[in-house]
Design brief:
The longest helix has 12 residues. The strands form two sheets. A five-stranded antiparallel β-sheet has the order 2-3-1-9-8. A four-stranded antiparallel β-sheet has the order 4-5-6-7. The protein starts with a strand and ends with a helix. Helices cover about 25% and strands about 30% of the residues. Strand 8 and strand 9 form a beta hairpin. By secondary structure, the protein is of the alpha+beta class.
Length: about 180
């Protein structure tokens, strides 16, 4: 299992790596296998890892500078062999993490990739050329995925608490008298 986060800024420059760090820190449990953050122009993606199988230790955000894509995913595939065959990966599919297979599926099939994946998954892709985020999750919604947009950017995370951690609170303290008057 992984906690994922992706942040993209609407500004022309910069990388929201600090925001991704804040999103990952907001996950309720520390990740025993560590975390990884990768940045691209105007976007950053991060993952906190809990390794179930050895290939989970290699799970990390992936970046393709040529295509200007950034990928992060919490992925457990049940059709690894079929996906590997369809992608012509041969033996390389056996060593790839499930997130890497989902990434390669996205590179081949684009937004149709989730239709070819069987398993529990949630992933997000930043497309720097289009300035857009594509996010998908498994058909039954087993892996959670939340998003938020505001004036400064767009954010995707595994838990709503992660998004609340970066949301400004418009109030300083609760006014008990106002609440009491409202209910009376």
């Amino acid at each position: 299992m992984f906690a994922i986060a992706l942040a993209a800024t609407f500004a022309d420059e910069g990388s929201p790596a600090n925001t991704v760090d804040a999103l990952l820190r907001a996950w309720p449990c520390p990740a025993p296998e560590g975390q990884a953050v990768v940045s691209a122009p105007r976007a950053s993606a991060g993952i906190s890892r809990w390794a179930v199988v050895d290939r989970d230790r290699r799970a990390a955000p992936l970046r393709d500078p040529e295509r200007q894509l950034l990928f992060v995913g919490d992925v457990r595939l049940y059709n690894r062999r079929e996906v590997g065959r369809a992608l012509d990966l041969g033996e390389a599919a056996l060593d790839a993490s499930d997130a890497e297979l989902a990434w390669k599926a996205y590179l081949r099939w684009g937004e149709d990739a989730p239709r070819r994946l069987i398993g529990d998954f949630a992933f997000a892709v930043w497309d720097g050329r289009r300035g857009s985020i594509f996010a998908a999750r498994d058909h039954l919604g087993v892996r959670p995925l939340y998003y938020m947009a505001n004036d400064t950017g767009a954010y995707v995370a595994s838990d709503v608490g992660q998004l609340l951690a970066i949301t400004p609170r418009p109030f300083a303290e609760i006014n008990a008298q106002t609440i009491l008057e409202r209910f009376l």
